Amino acid sequence: MIVDVHAHTPTHTGPVPDADRLTYQGWRTDRPVTTTNSWDDYDAAMADADVSIVFNIAVDDPLASTGLDYRPEDTNAATLAFTRAAPSRRVGFMSVNPTRPDALDQAERWRAEGLVGIKLGPNYQEFDPLGAPALALYGWAERAGLPILFHQGASPIRHAPLRYTYPLVTDEVALRFPELRIVMAHMGHPWGKETVVTIRKHPHVYADVSSIYLRPWVCYESLLAAVEWGCADKLLLGSDFPIANTGEAIAGIRRVNDILAGTALPRVPAELIENIIHADALGALGLTDAITREPW
Q1: Mean of the per-residue pLDDT values of the chain
Q2: Less packed terminus of the chain by CB within 10 Å, N or C?
Q3: DSSP secondary structure code for residue 122 in this structure
Q4: Are 37 and 11 in contact (CB under 8 A)?
Q5: Residue 130: inside a domain
Q6: Percent above pLDDT 90 for the chain
Q7: Which domain of life does this protein belong to (predicted)?
């Protein structure tokens, strides 16, 4: 089974009206990204995945032009409706801001509704990932058995603090919450080596490869580091829709060695790439029954 662990909830249930259509230049270097999309657009993008994990980032100060355009209530309601429409193929994660006074109440509410994990972007949501409110949410998630997928690494958004997404911050989180299942998005690009040494030491910390294939050297360096440090089995497939789609993600990591033609540099083993594509992501995150379970 192919599981795409990193996709964003569509902005529109039906076709996107021309007046609503938005693109953003900053997410890719080769072309602009259309940040408004329909349920059908999502299904087309996920055609090569059997199951996808879907979410958005709840921000209190929306940045519509970049695609960060959902307030907490909107993003979770949209994700829930979308996953309920195809529960055997879509697994929904909530997003909450730990600094909101009702954060834990909201987390419990959306858990009860059927969202089975949490997506956090401390840089976009403007909270300290090692601050007391965030630690309280991690503790709740650990007790409740909900995995957390963190945005890690670079962002083109100027106001988003890079220090909040540096991979070694996740090491601190995992030290305090050893049973919390964590996914480090984008292999922390460009800090792939820091991500690798973090997932290597923590049994329940993983990384997804979303978007790294858009930058060939980052992709090669990051995957080779996982090979050399013996933790390539901790890598999960992700596309980062709408920035890319599952097929593009698969093709991109399969091309990881293309830049090495004519060199003696070490290759990333082909079997490793196939293991990422077919990784048991739901099992790793404690979500084996996520596509069949009833709401709590």
Answers
A1: 92
A2: C
A3: H
A4: yes
A5: yes
A6: 81
A7: Bacteria
Torsional class of 242: left (φ above 0), alpha (ψ -120 to 50), beta (otherwise): alpha
- Each residue of 86-98: pLDDT tens digit? 999 999 999 999 9
pLDDT at 63: 52
| Helix spans in the chain (H) | 39-45, 72-84, 103-113, 122-125, 132-144, 167-176, 192-201, 216-228, 246-254, 270-277, 281-284
Residue 104 belongs to what domain range? 3-283
- CATH code at position 80: 3.20.20.140
Residue 1: how many other CB atoms lie within 10 Å: 12
The total domain count for the chain is 1
* pTM of the entire predicted model: 0.94
294 pLDDT above the threshold of 70: no
Residue 261 resides in a domain: yes
Q: Is residue 192 part of a domain?
A: yes
Which region, left, alpha or beta, applies to residue 253 given φ > 0 means left and ψ of -120 to 50 means alpha?
A: alpha
Q: Strand pairing of 51-55 and 235-236?
A: unpaired
Cα 160 from Cα 142, distance rounded (Å) = 26
Euclidean distance between CA atoms 37 and 81, whole angstroms:
15
Counting every residue, how long is the chain?
296
> Residue 193 corresponds to which tokens in the numbers above?
């080596």
Residue with tokens 């089995």: 233
Residue 290 within a domain: no
For 48, the 3-state DSSP assignment is: coil
